[in-house]
Design brief:
This protein has a single domain, classed as Arc Repressor Mutant, subunit A, CATH 1.10.10. 72% of the residues lie in helices and 0% in strands. The longest helix has 19 residues. It starts with a helix and ends with a helix. The mean pLDDT is 92. InterPro entries: Homeodomain-like_sf, HTH_AraC, Tscrpt_reg_AraC-type_HTH.
Length: 87
């Protein structure tokens, strides 16, 4: 799983340094950026309509479906089911 800690270990820097450098360069924190990219990926999967919501969640890196629903709704303002049905 991609996390701040796994990235810091991979690049041999402290979590704090990586976090500060990433935010200075990208403008957002590592965790927020990872979450945003996962949500954008899940949204594209759901818009295509070729996978179930559960599969989209899993492919985007979320094992806990209830948590995926909460994060998705917070990000897009609608649930994955509402996006899927076109509401």
């Amino acid at each position: 799983m991609l996390t701040l800690e796994s990235l810091s270990l991979r690049f041999f820097v402290s979590k704090e340094h990586l976090s500060r450098a990433f935010k200075a360069h990208v403008g957002t924190g590592v965790t927020d950026y990872i979450t945003m990219r996962r949500m954008v990926y899940a949204e594209s999967l759901l818009r295509e309509g070729k996978v179930s919501i559960k599969q989209a969640a899993k492919l985007a890196g979320y094992e806990d479906l209830a948590y995926f629903y909460r994060v998705f709704k917070k990000r897009f303002g609608i649930s994955p089911g509402e996006l899927r049905s076109g509401e």
